[in-house]
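Figure-free illustration: sequence to structure, shown twice.
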Amino acid sequence: MTKQGKVVDMVVQYETLLNNKWTPIVRYDCAHGFFHRDILFPKGEKEKQTIVITSLEDALNYAEQDIKDRWEFYKERYIKKIKK
């Protein structure tokens, strides 16, 4: 979300289509008062990873670039967890 051209809140989420259902795999946000990545797993668990970036604009750019660069890795890891 922006206000007067400045990022004031953000959520970036990667979802993939699995078994005809859109499934969230990884999410970046500023909930809980800090920027972090939630790695989501098939059984509902999630792993929260704090990322130290002070600017919301930088955080948004980081999240977008990470998902563009690593979406295949995140998807493969999720699918491997389904098979276990």
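We now fold a second protein in the same way, so the two outputs can be compared directly.
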Amino acid sequence: MKTSKKISVLVADDHIVVREGLCSLLNADQDFRVVGETRTGREAVELTLALRPDVILMDIAMPVLNGLEATKQILATDPAAKVLILSAYSDDEYVLRTTAAGAVGFLEKQTSAAILSKAIHEVARGNTFFSPTIAKHLHISQNKPLDRNGLPKANSTRLTSRESEILQLVAEGSTNRQIGSDLGVSVKTVEKHRQHLMDKLNIHDTAGLTRYAMATGVIEAGVRLTIV
């Protein structure tokens, strides 16, 4: 049965071909209306607050602010927001991290248009939705020992939201001054957070932070970065 009101969707993905394809696909469906699109997590946060879409279709690996941290910031301001993750990363830990952050669904980018449509409908109704492959693995993962954040205990290092932002910006090649400008804080504050970050991870150079960011999916592996 078709709904009378179109479901408004915000699309956040840094790959322009993927983003444009998703927007075209959704706009061609009479049930959906794309109200905005963006390539960064930070813009996703801003547009969500401005546009209040029914569903945010969110990638994980995006510049400036990744989808995981963007999800946390969106829900901190608007707990009723519905974030549906669409990502090339689909291992158990990524799924657990996004659900711990508050996402209500997770799809692989290889998913079919029919499953994507079903997922958006379910999420808009207030339900959760995981692609069949992820749903099968998720109940297995939930039997593993988890910490209070819903993450595997083996990964004991937990960063604050601000530390995660700084980690991403450092890995993308931003200087302390640029980071301070982006986040609206002083260079001294950035230096303090950066030092705490390095102490927590026991990493003492920028190259090491960059490798860590790639290994944990904070930034996409293989992206050309400027190491300073």
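Summary for the second example: Confidence is low (pLDDT under 50) at residues 142-156, 223-228.
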